[in-house]
UniProtKB/TrEMBL annotation:
Name of the featured protein: SnoaL-like domain-containing protein
Organism: Novosphingobium hassiacum
Pfam family, one: SnoaL_2
Domain of life: Bacteria
Any coiled-coil regions, as ranges: none
UniProt cross-references to InterPro entries, sorted A to Z: NTF2-like_dom_sf, SnoaL-like
Domain spans labelled SnoaL-like: 7-102
Length: 127
């Protein structure tokens, strides 16, 4: 089993910032569905993942499918935001120590992307 993926699932269940802090590598990169440039570095990745946890952590988020190939994981998720059905994928690559080195989020449909952008903007302003 992918140790990083198991740690990610533990974090998602606990939403414990200390667990997330241990999970992200120093040279990690985050690819947002609404920001066109990759966000490079541990602090930025932590900032985005923490904000996403606030936005998506409304009690409706759940992973519905998981594809794993060694250090790579593709996790399909569903949730609801302000009455809008959100469907997306977290594409995560882990290093040999099980830390996140690359995290890409893709979201559909367009209404969902717009809602994610709106709610993430509010969270990012508050950090």
């Amino acid at each position: 089993m992918n140790l990083g993926l198991a740690a990610w699932h533990r974090y998602m269940q606990s939403n414990d910032p200390a667990q997330l802090d241990q999970l992200v590598a120093d040279d990690a990169v985050f690819h947002s569905p609404v920001v066109h440039t990759p966000q490079v570095g541990r602090e930025k990745v932590l900032m985005y993942l923490t904000a996403a946890g606030q936005v998506f952590g409304n009690g409706t988020f759940r992973y519905v499918r998981e594809l794993v190939d060694g250090p790579e994981a593709c996790l399909e998720f569903e949730c609801e935001m302000d009455g809008i059905a959100v469907n997306g994928i977290d594409l995560i690559r882990f290093d040999l120590e099980g830390r996140i080195v690359d995290f890409k989020v893709m979201v559909r449909p367009l209404k969902a992307i717009n809602k994610v952008w709106e709610l993430m903007a509010v969270q990012m302003e508050n950090t």
